[in-house]
Amino acid sequence: xxxxxxKVGIIGAGSRGILSFGKTIATRNDAQVAALCDxxxxxxxxxxxxLGFKPNFYTSVEAMIAAEKLDAxxxxxxxxxxxxxxxxxxxxxxxxxxxxxLAITVKGCQNIIRAAEKAGKxxxxxxxxxxxxxxxxxxxxxxxxxxxxxFLIENREFYNGGRTYMSRWNRLxxxxxxxxxxxxxxxxxxxxxxxxxxxxxxxxxxxxxxxxNPEHIPFAVKPDVPVGPTCHQCAYKEIxxxxxxxxxxxxxxxxxxxxDSDGYSKDLCMYTSDxxxxxxxxxxxxxxxxxxxxxxxxxxxxxxxxxYTVVGDRGQAEVSLEKRTIIIRPRWSQEVITHHIPEIEGGxxxxxxxxxxxxxxxxxxxxKNSSTTEHGMWSTAIGxxxxxxxxxxxxxxxxxxxx
Length: 403
Ligand SMILES: NC(=O)c1ccc[n+]([C@@H]2O[C@H](COP(=O)([O-])OP(=O)(O)OC[C@H]3O[C@@H](n4cnc5c(N)ncnc54)[C@H](O)[C@@H]3O)[C@@H](O)[C@H]2O)c1
Prior knowledge:
Elements lengths: L5 E6 L3 H12 L4 E7 L3 H11 L4 E3 L2 H7 L4 E4 L6 H10 L3 E5 L6 H14 L3 E4 L6 H11 L6 E9 L14 H4 L2 H4 L1 H11 L5 E9 L47 H7 L17 E8 L4 E7 L6 E8 L2 E6 L4 E6 L6 E4 L6 H17 L9 H20 L3 E2 L6
Parallel strand pairs: 1-2, 1-4, 2-3, 4-5, 5-6, 7-10
Antiparallel strand pairs: 7-11, 8-9, 8-15, 9-10, 11-12, 12-13, 13-14
The structure holds nicotinamide-adenine-dinucleotide (NAD).
The site of nicotinamide-adenine-dinucleotide has 24 residues, from helix 1.
């Protein structure tokens, strides 16, 4: 008997929509990418070329849903339009897989939650880190009691590629909610998940643009030769150590032709671009059960890794996603247990295909949705509180966001 083939539409036909989701869904026997929705026609044409087939193109979610009998949509549009796109899809009776963050404010998350409840449709968060084999193993070890009661988590993310957050839409608070939401929401969700979802109560954060600004351009600038505005146009592109080179840019979704239609450049100069987010920072969270967690993110670094230290009353774990190791140190023993977690194929350390697989299992009723909109809301809440904290230089009570 042939398997049901879910008809899927992708909202936001950019990098994540096509390279992570579209291409993976296209390999499945139980799903097809039937339609793309993106205000940028040029980018949809490139998306179809990348996919190797041409789904139907739409520039509005409503038009796509009216014309196609979709079972689900994947939302990979920029963060600021997650709310409108999710509400439009849910109100028209379509299931949703939405990449993090759920929305860029708690209020936006609440609007999505209400729309999902009203429609009675599945909506799953794209928290792919939860599907990372190293973090899955860590969660299992904690659930089995290897650390006892966890009361402290420390996480540091060093991300070389994060420099490009200064080069495109996520550099703007209005479009991404700031990097505590755009980027930190991953890690805040991991804290919530590892701790079994106590409510976050207080957040303090410090962050700034300390390096990727005009004062720290790493080469001599001639008075009559301006820097930027994009890497591909920049007079200094051959000497800038941070040049962001997009292969064959004029024959890519980021070409001048694509930019002409919506003004979205992907390679703005990371030193001179207008931006109101941060290139490094630290956020601290306190939970209702007294647990505490800190998240450091730094995008000026020669290496990339996500490192966690998780401390419980029976032991401590040190984790590296890059080395794929978990070192457990039991509290009253000199024994050290090192777990090496094998590589898995696929984006984000093998997490992306597993996330997509989990979504289709939820649609088929084979699995319960374990990444809910509530979870999405709590990670956004910590990110939003962190952003307010760093701007207003005060500790923020998360309850403020729900008033
Ligand atoms: N989970 C992860 O690891 C991960 C990694 C990267 C990005 N993301 C998330 O994926 C989403 C997309 O990020 P990206 O890096 O692929 O961005 P991108 O810029 O590569 O692609 C975004 C696409 O959305 C389109 N778009 C703009 N406005 C739209 C609208 N109103 N409706 C529909 N489409 C619209 C743009 O034209 C573009 O093609 C974001 O929400 C981001 O936070 C998640």
